[in-house]
Amino acid sequence: MAKKTTTINEDKIIVENKVVNTSSIVSKVWAFCNTLRDDGVGYGDYLEQLTYLLFLKMADEYTHPPHNRKMPIPVAYNWQTLTNKTGDELEVHYNHLLRELAKEKGILGQIFTKSQNKITDPAKLYKLIALINAEQWVLMGVKDKGDIYEGLLEKNAEDTKSGAGQYFTPRPLIKAMVECLRPQPMKTIADPACGTGGFFLAAYDWMTDEKNLSLDKGQKQFLKFNTFFGNEIVASTRRLALMNLFLHNIGDIDSEQVLISPNDSLISASETRYDYILANPPFGKKSSMTFTNEDGEQEKEDLTYNRQDFWVTTSNKQLNFVQHIKSMLKTTGQAAVVLPDNVLFEGGAGETIRKKLLETTDLHTILRLPTGIFYANGVKANVLFFDGKPASKDPWTKEIWVYDYRTNVHHTLKKNPLKLEDLRDFITAYNPQNRHKRNETFSEANPEGRWRKFTYEEIIARDKTSLDITWLKDKSLADLDNLPDPDELAEDIVENLETGLESFRAIIASLNASKG
Amino acid sequence: MDKEQRKNQLPADWKWERLGDIANYLNGRAFKPTEWELIGKPIIRIQNLNNPDAKYNYTRNEFEKKYEVKKGDLLFAWSASLGAYIWKGEDAWLNQHIFKVVPNEGVDKLYLYYLLEEIVHVLYTQAHGSGMVHVTKGKFEGTHIPLPSLSIQQAVVSKIEELFSELDKGIESLRAAQQQLKVYRQSILKWAFEGKLTNDRVEEGSVPNGWRKLSLKELTIVISDGDHQPPPKSKSGIPFITISNVDKHSNKINFSETFFVSNEYYETLKEHRKPAKGDILYTVTGSFGIPILIDYDKEFCFQRHIGLIRPKDSANQKWLYYVLQSPEIWDQAKATATGTAQKTVSLNSIRNFQVPFCSIEEQYRIVQAIESRLSVADKLEETITQSLQQAESLKQSILKKAFEGKLI
């Protein structure tokens, strides 16, 4: 407990010492990243090494005045041991250090799990160490060092070859979802597929913004140590998440409590129920795992999760996440989840799950997202907002409000990326302060209105209880008097073809799975 | 594959039953036209099942309960056009040539529905092309079908619906892309003749430097139409084109099914009624506004419902052909067309079409720019059309697999 109090005080130190010039550091970090890229070290690899080294450097800083904290890092592998070596000696020691620290407990071991040195040139490694060594990181503003890291994560996501972007939720979307939920102090927030921790950061930022909340000491303490719980099965991504949270002042360098579990969250029911769930489960429909068979060949097997608490057994990963998220939500909890269209229209298991979701939760809002905002191609996604409810005979969902931010909306990752401003109209319509008081913008007089209410009866009468609802006229299809630009149309065509491809790929996967 | 083989390849716990033994098939009633009314309960006829826009007949009379159809009932049309349907409308009466299918206990209605869908396909294949298929009740009820336990039936249905919903979505995306390609075509032409494909910056509402508007007659040697006299038809000789030989999707003449006129008649025609390489034909009556590029040497003549446009040297033939396809010219054609049933654009209005004109070099560059884009669009459209057909086959092949017990 005493330790944690110190940390709170340190926040003040950081604020007071804001004279540190961070912009030069940012540019140095970036410049070095570019140097390494010329050597074939990608953003992902660079980030990974940066994570190890930054962690050790900051731990080292904490052992000195004014902190004088005792850190759990073995002396033989602390920061100092890296700064007095060069060449082969440095490389050998660094490799050894990575392996050994992976065996440690708590956040330390988590950060170094499956760690590997990806910088093969010891001279470059030496330079990177020197670069980090020259700065006082702990003194740097939380926002600055956090932003450096988030910036690198985003760059990494853009690096399409690595595939890292597949799971990267656009930050403006995350912020909008948090603004709608308005997470309150002393409550828990979970993300069962947390990636690099984007939702946690956005929630943290929102809650520590004095325009929104003013937190007392206990509430700040709770926010830092007891609010966030995530799962991330990919070791390297989990490491990035932990570092990202830590640099943003969530959790602590020497805390033993693990904020992010390495377990597959779908395997078993969560022991805890949470107040808020914010998530964007990974895209790609199938749950599968690769294993080596008796003949030493790689085989892929379908994963169906035999969960007693699930409404229906399916190998559709997205549908399983919906069921899981429902199961981990408190009866007073709120969820906002990014899900692809197939969850809205898919027959069979999908239909059962939609019906159950409407009955057992209050599924009150659907935000239809445009294409061109995700790093994965051909993905059409939505945000589903639903509230947990106690058991009841009557369905909890009374009406669903749909906001169509897709029809005639054009975003591209580079030329016209999604901004928080683009979602401002939705947030206003959502009315976060009191979501029970809302006004439709759609009406017979205004058929172009994007915000429309549907009753439970209307929804349940739809074929397969499909929630894939559109009413706006697509200008790229009909309006010859008002022709869109050819390049805009060409992009629409590409998107439709990509979406079509995804559908047919999903069918192939589903048919292959049933060969048994 | 014969029946015995199909039966033997089924999973061990699947039974091989007759359609007649798993459900009751209640034929609809032969309603008389005198019983039809404009109000009351709708009468479901086959056209109401396979065409959502077909009109219903109604009746206020009451009939036997077995003719009554409720929402969710399984129907099977067994004459003329075969097909299984789940009724989604209000309470109604059933006309003859349609069965109301009432499954026995232990038989899932949707399982039977998809099964009938598959059988229909097989029956059609066996009927060799002729659209009219008629199934006798005896033959129908004697058809052997695979039947697993109720829980497996339900699992099969669930899997089919999962796959079909995804498939329908895929088809919907392809259709949307197909539709957008048509708009894309128009959009490219619009841009081309606003100068946007060949000039860097064109302010909205203005034309690029050196561009001006001309009437079509200033760009042409002659604008005429075909012979107004009925042509003396002959068994062979020179092809004579009517508007029905024009394919409006490809803007091409289909020479395979044309009339012929004699050489002697052709020779008597004036030069401006004989299409030559370099001319553009333009339909003027009925489906008006379709330009056809004559970029080949071939002797033929045409009906008066088609116009002939012979460009001057200052107008590139292909350029003019694309101009005539552009939304700008189409709007002018629409605005000046007269008549009600058979709309006609007069030669005079064609002569006065206002055309955006630029140098012959730029015309050539415009043609290049248009064609490089449209060729890609054409190829893509072809691919999509083919994919859509394959998607239909995929549906059938999924059903086949399902009833071989291989889907789950």
Automatic annotation (TrEMBL), chain A:
Gene3D superfamilies: 1.20.1260.30, Vaccinia Virus protein VP39. It is an enzyme of class 2 (transferase). Residues 26-131 form the N6 adenine-specific DNA methyltransferase N-terminal domain. Keywords: Methyltransferase, Restriction system, S-adenosyl-L-methionine, Transferase. Residues 146-443 form the DNA methylase adenine-specific domain. The keyword Transmembrane does not apply. Its EC number is 2.1.1.72. It holds the Pfam family N6_Mtase. It catalyses: a 2'-deoxyadenosine in DNA + S-adenosyl-L-methionine = an N(6)-methyl-2'-deoxyadenosine in DNA + S-adenosyl-L-homocysteine + H(+). InterPro entries: D12N6_MeTrfase_N, DNA_Adenine_Mtase, DNA_methylase_A-5, DNA_methylase_N6_adenine_CS, SAM-dependent_MTases_sf, T1MK-like_N_sf. It comes from the Bacteria. Belongs to the N(4)/N(6)-methyltransferase family. This is site-specific DNA-methyltransferase (adenine-specific).
Automatic annotation (TrEMBL), chain B:
GO terms for molecular function: endonuclease activity; hydrolase activity. Keywords: DNA-binding, Endonuclease, Hydrolase, Nuclease, Restriction system. The keyword Cell membrane does not apply. Pfam families: Methylase_S (PF01420). This is Restriction endonuclease subunit S. Its EC number is 3.1.21.-. The lineage of its organism: Bacteria, Pseudomonadati, Bacteroidota, Chitinophagia, Chitinophagales. Residues 11-171, 211-389 form the Type I restriction modification DNA specificity domain. It comes from the Bacteria. It comes from Chitinophaga nivalis. InterPro entries: Restrct_endonuc_typeI_TRD, Restrct_endonuc_typeI_TRD_sf, Type-I_RE_S_subunit. Belongs to the type-I restriction system S methylase family.
